[in-house]
Amino acid sequence: MEGASFGAGRAGGAVDPLDFLKQPQTILRATAWIFSIVVFGSIVNECYVNKDGTDPELHCIFNENESACSYGIAIGIIAFFGCIFFLVVDLQFQQISSVKDRKRAVLLDLGFSGFLSFLWFVAFCFLANQWQRTTMSKGASQGADAARAAIAFSFFSIIVWVALALKALQRYRLGTDMSLFATDQFATDPNAAYPGYPTGSGIESTETYQSPPFTETSDANPKGYQVPAY
User: Can you give the pTM of this predicted structure?
Assistant: First the structure.
């Protein structure tokens, strides 16, 4: 974006809602938000099942490993609220006038997106491994589709969060155009004169006022008075 500061225009500019919704970064965040809902929603609603269909106690469908279900739910919730937070940051980003604050926001986005990419990778590997070790039973068969959905969308979340991290890195590399934050009174040409300073030809004029030389004439002493010599 021409004349942009970390991917956004001049501070204080109006934000067009349609343009904001069409931005790739907004689409990726909305997609990551939906994927997080699918993951933790599937685990909470259908991945706690009876072992044989008659046992009243519920167990995690992933090899009865409670840590697998807890981890999937936790990552889904973190991603859910993280997407909402950074959507608000993106919406208000153009209102941030400080270059340092914009830089911190982009670095926070980069770090969070990279960290979530790693967490989703761990979640995918963990859930997939535990699902392979799961002994199929009547209860497990009932929640099998939900378990597969959680694993699949964990994998899709890796791709989306990696894309968000790359977008944040791209914005950081764009840097900042300091001309957006310069006042209008400074000229763009560094060799130009400061506004309001009178400029001349650079040659000192010889027609300057000079006082007449002191001359000893009789007019200087009209009465003819002479100073006696000692």
Answer: 0.70
